[in-house]
Amino acid sequence: MGEVSIIGLDLAKNVFQLHGASAAGHVKFRKKVTRGQFRHFMATHEPAIVVMEACGSASYWAREMVRLGHEVRLIAPQYVRPFVTRQKNDAADAEAIVIAAQRPEMRFVEPKTEEQQARAMLFRGRERLVHQRTELVNALRSHLYEYGHAVPQGISQIRSIEAIILASNSDLQKLVREECLDLLKQIAEKTTRIDVKTKKITALAAEGDTARRLQTMPGVGPLTALAIEAFASDMGRFRRGRDFAAWLGLVPRQHSSGGKERLGRVSKAGQADIRRLLITGAMSRLSWLKRKPAPEGSWLARMSQKKPRMPVAVALANKMARAIWAMLVKNEDYRNPAQAAGA
Fold first, then answer.
1. Same domain, 282 and 184
2. d(CA 313, CA 303)
3. Is 64 in a helix, a strand, or coil?
4. Cα–Cα distance between 75 and 15 in angstroms, integer?
5. Which of 69, 84, 241, 307 is the most buried if burial means most Cβ atoms within 10 Å?
């Protein structure tokens, strides 16, 4: 089994498929092992490049392989799929991982640290509670609509809903009111749990210097700062801010051919949580313009006059992503471009 320089690993819960190859791509071994056998096999194997798809347990096994002296690379599954030949099975997947990793232009995913995964779990937990609360509010609105009460969307309408249910002259039947009150109780419980997690996120964002620096940018709060810490790759891996914005999917999708450039909507090809939060932050910055208009002749003022609100927000989110890259690479706080130009 000598001269094995790269090992493709198809991860699973209990049975792993290994594909060993030389630097030239010649097959050295194909092996199927259990979880316990895999750990022992890699502990006794000479140092090699271990490549696996970026999936649920990939970051954990990446850290374990690094402890055993191996070099680890993760590949996005969509980049591996074109290299699967003929039938799809574990052995073919492991071989395709090796072939994809040997491509000189291949882009790899950076494994997450334990701290990043913990922060991501907290972020996902809060997001899950928000979705569950939204589901409950929509169910409550739909029940009231069946009895002729039309309530606008949004958690801010919960007091109006409560007033309809508890009104002394309400036309709702007793059983309907009881069910609606039960939904209100569940919504209140979700809100309490969301508030607890929000306070925890705010406290975490106040501890680190990176999160504090990110929050100096208008439109970036504790939630966005934590998401960037948890999900974003090391900014040193991006050559420039434009690459980070493209990684987030905040660039136009291309349909160019024959030398003619055709640009469509944003690609949405990257990290969805950070992209959504940056666009939300950009929308909040645009809402400030009603009270404090942008300087006359500035980019934001010109865009606001020519384009609809959402395209302007996406373009502003792109600029925010580039600025975030510069702030983290240079270890600087946010500087307002208008003020910097005046200085």
1. no
2. 10
3. helix
4. 20
5. 241
Q: Please provide the distance, in angstroms rounded to a whole number, between the alpha carbons at the two ends of the chain.
A: 65
Per-residue pLDDT tens over the stretch 276-319: 999 999 999 888 887 888 877 788 888 888 888 999 999 999 99
- The answer to whether residue 68 is domain-embedded is yes
Burial of 312 (0-12, 13-18, 19+ CB in 10 A): buried
CA distances from 161 to 136, 140, 178, 199 (A): 12, 8, 14, 27
Helix (H) or strand (E) holding 17: strand 15-21
- Say if CB 145 and CB 157 are below 8 A apart: no
Give the residue carrying structure tokens 């900014």.
235
Same domain, 127 and 216: no
Range of the domain at 333: 210-342
Considering the domain architecture, whether residues 228 and 331 belong to the same structural domain is answered as: yes
Count of structural domains, the chain: 3
Q: Which tokens sit at 312?
A: 């302007």
What DSSP character marks residue 22?
A: -
Q: Decide: residue 263, CB within 10 A, 0-12 exposed, 13-18 middle, 19+ buried.
A: exposed
Phi first, then psi: give them for residue 253, nearest 5 degrees: -80, 135
Q: Which of 44-48, 114-118, 168-172, 282-286 has the lowest mean pLDDT?
A: 168-172
109 falls within a domain: no
Residue 180's closest CA among 131, 220, 219, 146? Answer: 146
What does the pLDDT look like over 240-271, one tens digit per residue? 999 999 999 998 887 777 778 787 788 888 88
Q: What is the pLDDT of residue 269?
A: 81
Residues 221 and 337 in one domain: yes
Q: Is residue 180 part of a domain?
A: yes
Looking at the structure, tell me whether residues 263 and 305 fall in a common domain.
yes
Whether residue 194 is found in the same domain as residue 317: no
